[in-house]
Amino acid sequence: MRALGLVVPRPKGEAVRKKLLELGALDRQLEIRADAHSLILPLLRPVELGYEMRRVEFKELPGPPPDFRTIAKVPEKLRGQIPGSFDVLGHLAILKLPPALERYGKAVGQAILKTHASLRTVCVDRGVRGPRRLRELTVLAGESDTKTVYREHGLLYELDVSKVFFSPRLATERLRVASQVQPGEVVLDMFCGAGPFAMLIAKRARPERVYALDANPDAIEALQHNLQLNHLTSVEPRVGDARELVPTLPKVDRAIMNLPHAAFDYFPLGLRALKAAGHLHYYEVLERTGVEVREAALHSVAEGQGAELQVLVRHPVKSYSPTMDLFGFDLRISHKTS
Fold first, then answer.
1. Is 186 found in the same domain as 214?
2. Distance CA 197, CA 213 (A)
3. Which structural domain, as residue segments, surrounds residue 287?
4. Do 213 and 316 share a structural domain?
5. pLDDT value, residue 338
6. pLDDT tens-digit profile of 78-106?
7. Number of compact structural domains in the chain
């Protein structure tokens, strides 16, 4: 269709696009046009930003898919309990269902596949179980294969989600942490899983070494495979319990403790892993009303270890339940010298 467009040099295109979004002037139902030198951004109304405006032909974008919740074959009284979101890992969708919808899981899965052409498998997540922190997954609809390929921040992951825990909802948090790592740092990921923190740090920063530990052999095997796939050489994976492995490693500049339901038990070990001064990224699922109590406990443990603790950042990373969040703490640790 013919509409008004803003002609912008390619290097300025993304900044101007964001500005038009802020102004509510970008027509998001039309496709941006491009040539070798310029972008033509479709406008809802004239905007004076110092660039030429002209009327041109734009291609209409397809509308959003119908909401899968509206077409799922479930009793109307239960429709409001269908979750509005789910995790996507490559061709896989992973969602949680309330008990009342368990018997209608197949119908919900089929509705997701009908409305999301890129997906081929829908699984229900019944929670993380066991010492290896694996999701208990059951295929609801589509193909039965739980092996998938997932891209995040320019990295490629090949993994079997029935054998390795991986949460795409931490993508922003992983980037936030990786951006803090300084060149030459030695980093420890105490509970690495498939290694997304370790791999992103290796890609985005210039660490001397990243030690990546996990008790799940399948997770370490997946990490080793994906390190080769992404041509990363500064990560050293090791399989085993952190209690046994950490004492065998050199002291590090920065440690990551992403063990949401048991991190506090390992906190003294994380403190001992650091050099005289270092940083620790600590994650725990907490009641929102209990965060201050946990912070005080972290201070107390550090004091008992002869260390000073400074909380640089404390923030909710993602929701866990109606009353609980996964909280992240960026901590600066200084060990007292006698």
1. yes
2. 12
3. 166-335
4. yes
5. 55
6. 999 999 889 999 999 999 999 999 999 99
7. 3
203: CB partners within 8 A, 6+ apart: 153, 154, 155, 178, 230, 232
Q: What is the pLDDT of residues 145-176, one digit of tens each?
A: 899 999 999 999 999 999 998 999 999 999 99
DSSP 277-322: EEEEEEEEEEEGGGHHHHHHHHHHHHHHTTEEEEEEEEEEEEE-SS
DSSP-derived secondary structure for 99-133: GGGGGGHHHHHHHHHHH-TT--EEEEEEEEETTTT
Whether 122 and 72 have beta carbons less than 8 Å apart is answered as no
Of 57, 80, 98, the residue that ends a domain is 57
Q: Which residues of 179-217 are buried (b: 16+ CB within 10 A; e: fewer)?
A: eebeeebbbbbbbbbbbbbbbbbbbbbebebbbbbbbbe
Tokens of 30: 């039309």
Q: Can you tell me the distance from the alpha carbon of 163 to that of 145, in angstroms, rounded to the nearest whole number?
A: 12
Pair 257, 191: CB distance under 8 Å: yes
Domain harbouring 312, CATH code = 3.40.50.150
Q: Phi and psi of 226, rounded to 5°?
A: -75, -25
CATH number of the domain that residue 19 is part of: 3.30.70.2580
Do 238 and 322 lie in a common domain? Answer: yes
Same domain for 228 and 298? Answer: yes
pTM, full prediction: 0.78
Question: Looking at the structure, do residues 51 and 80 belong to the same domain, yes or no?
Answer: no
Residues 74 and 47 in one domain: no
